[in-house]
Design a protein that fits this description.
Blueprint (H helix, E strand, L loop, with lengths): L8 H20 L4 H19 L4 H8 L7 H8 L1 E5 L12 E8 L2 E8 L5 H6 L7 H17 L3 E7 L6 H5 L2 H13 L5 E10 H5 L6 E5 L3 E3 L3 H9 L5 H8 L3 H6 L5 E3 L10 H19 L4 H13 L10
Helix pairs in contact: 1-2, 4-13, 6-8, 10-11
InterPro entries: Acetyl_CoA_COase_a_su, ClpP/crotonase-like_dom_sf, COA_CT_C
EC number: 2.1.3.15
Function: Component of the acetyl coenzyme A carboxylase (ACC) complex. First, biotin carboxylase catalyzes the carboxylation of biotin on its carrier protein (BCCP) and then the CO(2) group is transferred by the carboxyltransferase to acetyl-CoA to form malonyl-CoA.
Length: about 325
């Protein structure tokens, strides 16, 4: 358990106490069922109290949990016969973005997602889920392929942001993301994006121009990380908690502002507690969304996407 997840510490300690009593009861052949039942009831009450009153910073920590399901985890649960496709046909293959063709309820679909690792070795290979420009060009290649063959597109968003290193900038990082925004706006097939963890900056937007965008309950979606915002605003990254509250980066904040289309509930404690149950909630959302979009014509899909983003925010037009 990460030391930063302080809001969960009382739950962790109580679980450890229950496990300790169970071990004593088994080894010493002592009946401690009443004590264990009392603690388990207290645990349920504590979980309900803590997880129903999470602050924005708490949700940031859950979104960053090292065991939180990744794009590949959900692909394994939701799709069949997934074939991963590699390379951007310009430079190389970026392991921070995965994509390919699969079947969803026996229908072909193109699925693309940011991919981070769960171990140090895998995180290094995946560049901690921060794509280079070839990753976004690979994603766009797969989207254009899907458009050619009439397949709907599903994108999983889970990145701190696009990689800001020198090599990425030299190979056209900003141009690659900008081109994705431009091309995704005009795709003639249904596009759905789901934020499953962190949705950071332009790195998230590169897979986010869609007809429908959803967020898992404890995910985040913002122009910058709370630490980055605190460093800019107050010259102090330790004020990240205050920044998270001010930035309105949670699913509930973004839904209230009309930036996302819906929130996918998570079980108490986060998606990592039960990936199969979480995948079922995501599947229901995907099914309902594609059912509403597949009846639209190509022009209606493009207009739907345009009107969605046109309606975000408030602005005033002055008469000339």
């Amino acid at each position: 358990m990460s030391k930063s997840m302080t809001f969960e510490e009382p739950i962790v300690k109580l679980r450890e106490k229950i496990a300790e009593l169970k071990e004593i009861a088994n080894n010493a052949d002592v009946n401690m069922s009443d004590e264990i039942e009392t603690l388990e009831n207290r645990l349920r009450q504590l979980e309900e109290k803590i997880y129903s009153n999470m602050e924005p910073w708490d949700r940031v920590q859950v979104a960053r949990h090292p065991e939180r399901p990744t794009s590949l985890d959900y692909i394994q649960e939701l799709f069949t016969d997934f074939i991963e496709l590699h390379g951007d046909r310009y430079y190389g293959d970026d392991h921070a973005i995965i994509g390919g063709i699969a079947f969803f309820d026996d229908k072909p679909i193109t699925v693309i997602g940011h991919q981070r690792g769960k171990t140090t070795k895998e995180n290094i290979r995946r560049n901690f889920g921060m794509p280079h420009p070839e990753g976004y060009r690979k994603a766009l290649r797969l989207m254009k392929q899907a458009e050619k063959f009439g397949r709907p597109i599903l994108c999983f968003i889970d990145t701190k942001g696009a990689y800001p290193g020198k090599a990425a900038e030299e190979r056209g990082q900003s141009e690659a993301i900008a081109n994705n925004l431009f091309e995704m706006a005009g795709l003639k097939v249904p596009v759905i994006s789901i934020v499953i963890g962190e949705g950071g900056s332009g790195g998230a937007l590169g897979l986010g121009v869609s007809n429908r965008i959803y967020m898992l309950e404890n995910s985040t979606y913002s122009v910058i990380s709370p630490e980055g915002a605190a460093s800019i605003l107050w010259k102090d990254a330790t004020l990240a908690k205050q920044a998270a509250e001010a930035m309105k980066i949670t699913s509930y904040d973004l839904k209230s502002m009309g930036i996302i289309d819906g929130i996918i509930p998570e079980i108490a404690g986060g998606a990592h507690k039960d990936i199969k149950a979480q995948a079922l909630s995501i599947k229901k959302c995907i099914t309902e969304s594609f059912e509403s979009l597949t009846s639209l014509t190509e022009k209606e899909l493009i207009d739907d996407r345009y009107n969605k983003y046109r309606a975000i925010g408030e602005f005033l037009e002055l008469e000339v």
